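User: Can you model how 5-phosphoarabinonic acid sits in this protein?
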Amino acid sequence: MNNIRVNINDALGAVSQNAIEAMASEVRSSVNTLLEGTGAGNDFLGWVRLPENTPDSLLDDINATARRLRGECDVVVVVGIGGSYLGAKAVIEALGNPFSVYGDSKPQIVFAGHNIGEDYLYELQKYLEGKNFGIIVISKSGTTTEPAIAFRLLKAQLEASAGRETAARRIVAITDAKRGALRTLADEEGYTTYVIDDNVGGRFSVLTPVGLLPIAVAGYDIKALLDGARERQKAILSGADKSAEVYATTRNALYRSGKKIEILVNYNPRLHFFAEWWKQLYGESEGKEHKGIFPASVDFSTDLHSMGQWIQEGERSIFETVISVANVDHEVRIPSDEANLDGLNFLAGKRVDEVNKMAELGTRLAHVDGGVPNILVTIDALTERTLGSLIYFFEAACGISGYMLGVNPFNQPGVEAYKRNMFALLAKPGYEAETAAIRERIS
Ligand code: PA5
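Assistant: Here's the modeled complex, given as structure tokens:
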């Protein structure tokens, strides 16, 4: 099995092994609550056995649709926000070559509907002019404003440029089986559709068609991704693998000791969006009832030259979780230079990754010395299989951790507040009372 190793030795200065062991019955009870489905939000536990329950026939079907889109499109626009885009973006970036966008590899995957930037949408529409493009529109509720605006614009552009019939063939909708405006529209237009099951929340949906179709269109092996998740699911649910419990317990112990902010650290630029996915997973699951660790992230060594100062010497309310990737894909050695004007010959012959690993170790030691406890999560390499495994590990740990914190990890009541105000300000029908109240407030 591909490995995930969780090492908490560098967190033990801030919390003792005894304190962690004293939480053993608490973590057990959270695991049981999750597995027996007896806790708050238990109607959203579909993700727990999702890897095992996903039939290969669904993967074959998704791969067939992906092949069709790849054959027909130069660009595929993935429209979605939050859990309906971050998982796909995280995996595609973790597996991809950052320079492929400048080459002629096809199809290019671009994202929309994750912001309300007028310039972004204008520039995207300009970019798509004259190109064969397709759209994967994703919204579990089928009513989210940001993707709905982007989809309305892009659908009109595609129909105008390729004709309605071709557009209908190149649009795939991923949404609820029955409810929501997107379901109505997709049925009416005859789009290919995939379903997000009711019992899987948006931020836990990367291993459903929500993540799998864009990842397959990008050319990656979704069977290997699922296999990695299946292995991790089996190991965690059987109790053979305690890594998720260890991570959940340690972060809660640190939180209780006053470490209110967790910074997810990577030393591999491909993991930037994995951290964005992780932030949503933990932030939306745990930040409620005026509780919850604030999930932050940095890309090292890049951010050592910006946030590094704060982390080393700022307020001691933080801890770090480092995702360490043991092996990189390619080998680059630093050349020797006879003149050595840059003074770098002490590195001549070394691999760049060796330097990176020493930056990683040196930083970890410095941060621990500076009062920043450290949890180390090591994976073998960035492959579909390890990423599937890592995704399931973080999802499982999130469910356990949320129950240890004493919240419902599977709802997100707080995200409605901005929407109510925005709809009131935009005078959406049905919001008349709120519109009057908010106008009064800001007048
Ligand atoms: O985790 C969640 O439920 C949210 O972040 C959603 O994914 C996000 O709000 C998008 O919702 P929808 O897929 O319904 O458009």
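A couple of observations from the model: Strands lie at 4-7, 75-79, 108-112, 133-139, 171-175, 192-195, 261-266, 294-299, 318-327, 374-381. The CA atoms of residues 120 and 126 lie 10 Å apart.
User: Helpful, thanks.
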